[in-house]
Amino acid sequence: MSPSPRASTFCLSRRSGLFLSLLTLGSLALSQASMATAATTASAPASPVSSKPGSEKVLRYAFKVAETGFDPAKVQDLYSRLITANIFEGLYSYDYLARPFKLKPQTAAALPEHSADFKTWTVRVQPGIYFADDPAFKGKKRELTAADYVYSFKRFADPLTNSPTWDGLEELHLLGLNEYRAEVEKSKKPFNYDKPIEGLRALDRYTLQFKLAEARPRLPQTLADGSLLGAVAREVIEAYGDKSMEHPVGTGPFMLGDWRRSSLIELRRNPGYRERYYEAEPNADDAEGQAMLAQFKGRRLPMIDRVEVAIIEENQPRWLSFLNAQFDVLYTLPEDFTAQAIPGGKLAPNLAKKGMQKHTIVASDVLFTVFNMEDPVVGGFEPAQIALRRAISLATNAEREMRIARRGQAISAQSIMLPHTSGYDAEFKSENGDYDPQRARALLDLYGFVDRDGDGWRERPDGSPLVLESLTTPESFQRQIDEIWSKSLAQIGLQVKFKSAKWPENLKSLRAGKFQIWSLGSSASTPDGQDALGFFYSPRIGGQNYARFNLPAMDRLYEQTNGLPDGPERDAVFLAAKRLGVAYAPYRARGHRIITDLAQPWVSGYRRPAFALDWWQYVDIDNNKRP
Questions:
Q1: 29, 175, 270, 432 - which has most CB atoms within 10 Å?
Q2: How far apart are CA 148 and CA 171, in angstroms?
Q3: How far is residue 560's CA from residue 544's CA, in Å, rounded to a whole number?
Q4: What's the pTM?
Q5: CB 388 within 8 Å of CB 545
Q6: Beta carbons of 9 and 371 less than 8 angstroms apart
Q7: Which residues partner with 255 through β-bridges?
Q8: Separation CA 392–CA 42 (nearest Å)
Q9: What is the pLDDT of residues 353-375, one digit of tens each?
Q10: Which domains does the chain have, with CATH numbers?
Q11: pLDDT in tens, 158-192
């Protein structure tokens, strides 16, 4: 789920329910006096780095939201996953330059073999891959084996891990794994990692076999997210216990260096990383991709020595720090500065003169409002409650949000499905994309939500007060979006109050079902649209099903799409699910972002991947061009 929504935008990115990511947007304006202070503060966390020719190559940029930790089985926010994706490695990954996507082996020796019914999959792990050195290995070099993936996957099923992304692995229906988890939960006994599981076996040191109860044609896409399904070593987890979020040890190109929580995260090149070289397969007509391939083909990865990530939640100091060359990449241009940076969609002349680079994509994400279906005010399946949610949706002026708050950097959303994924259709239109206050008022009147006391606000059909409550976060950019939304609802006589907290607190409330409304965003980590349907799937309540939506008809559609191969039959099921989602309105999809990243002239090779997060190893820094 990848973890940006109304503003406290929360980006949830997942694949088969596994991949949740969150992100929060920043602010708008500081006084002129505070701007210099903000810029100074922004740069304070990072250690000084030499920029002299020949010195180490350091990539520096900033996160909008603080990390939570770095244990793949425990993380769910986008920013922590950006770190784990560069420390841990999955069996597969995505070609860095291929558009559309192309899977390729990461730690696997080749693409997997599978049975005709897509229920048995066999993967061979490359020999000679080693975990980064760590005291947990007691001075020995530790080779990656098939058993490490068996152990890593079992950790998601262990109730003690309390993995927020277990639901995605659960849906693979690995023979025996779900049943064993249920047994452990019932008996309260410790999870036995040595117990053989029929559907998850190491056939020998390097051969891994998955056996599934149901067809899963897109299993390799699930295995391609190293940020969550990267291999961990049992010795490391047992050595650090409940401190596993602080001690990530993987086989990837980087390892955790200095870490000042919520301030600075440093990753260093893994000195024991195996020999990997830049290879990619851009399309023949992809001029940019072909140029990158020509420049970097055969270069050993990673090409940089360190990465320094600061945490700057507000937009303006993050923007100013980039302009002052304190950061090398501005990962997602804040909407507040669209006019200054890319007027008319083109790089501003002053930035172009400096040699800065612009990279713009329509993101595979969706901004949406979620209603708690268990809430007595906005939840439920009674006609009046459905009418209330639909009225709120019709009164939501998403176009104004996209145009004013987001400075035109988003396109309208007609459903929860994400661009560039299966199930998304740019031609699909629905009530979800309508802004119609008149129809919203008519719905409320029809179902008894009227103003009985003449104070300008509607009451519930039983005469009790009707006050909506939405979670929010304190950033100034979020306040812009909240204001647009509250004014839209006021026009139809609905009053909304905001409950402000930092996003970790709001996330806890969301997962516990202790909220009424919140605005979030979902970002895809794979090309499979199955992810988005997970927002409606009842077994994911408490996980990716934030609305706590429980409708057997939708569950059946979800399960159909999960087992069908891509094609017209699956597309038809997606269409039925989209229509059902719009009818019951547990979510109001508002838009899909247009994302622009900026890079300094001394950065080369940067191109935001469509789904992968491990792009650091593919960029280079030219210290001779640093100011």
A1: 432
A2: 21
A3: 18
A4: 0.82
A5: no
A6: no
A7: 268
A8: 39
A9: 999 999 999 999 999 999 999 99
A10: 65-269 (3.40.190.10)
A11: 999 999 889 889 999 999 999 999 999 999 999 99
